[in-house]
Fold this protein.
Amino acid sequence: MKIVEICDENRAKFMPCIAKLAHEAFPPCELIAPFCVDELSEAEFEHLVAVDNGQFLGFATVRRWQNLVYLAFLAVNLNIRNSGVGAQILNALTNKFVDAIVVAEIENPYENCCDDEKELRKRRLKFYERNGFCESGHFISYCGVCYEIIYFDGACGTKNDKFDYLYNGKYDLANMDAIGRDFKMMFDEFSKGRKFEFKCEKSKFF
């Protein structure tokens, strides 16, 4: 398997695969706000795709904003989930952006919901934690859904040189606040000109 960046030479081949998988993997509300994966500008967003012997396996869509790289979408073909492809895409992504903090959102794992949904959210958080992501203690809400902001730090709960460099050498709650602040500023910019409303707040759990 190899990770390929979308470019002019392969865009016509892979973009239909990305759009199809996105519509299979994500609920409609997540595809239309704040970004529609079918209409993302290549000037704003980058796509990475996982390919094996020419077969499309999955993709990640990101946008760079100052110190942050926002992971807007990550999806793997339904029939090969839990095969390690998602982890390999994340590894390629975090290696590509070594000078930034990769951030994402996951549905709030602490929110009251049915047992099956709660278990799914916990598994999703564990997946990201296994791949070096940490909880920030900040949440964002849009389209009636609350998401927790998570970020890549390589080794959860320990100091990290990249984190130190970007956030003034202090691995503490003040820097969790800094990530929450930057995430909100990023969304403020992304949502300009779009019919999209959101709010950020600090978690009562941290």
Notes: Residues 155-174 have pLDDT under 50 and may be disordered. The chain has six helices and eight strands.
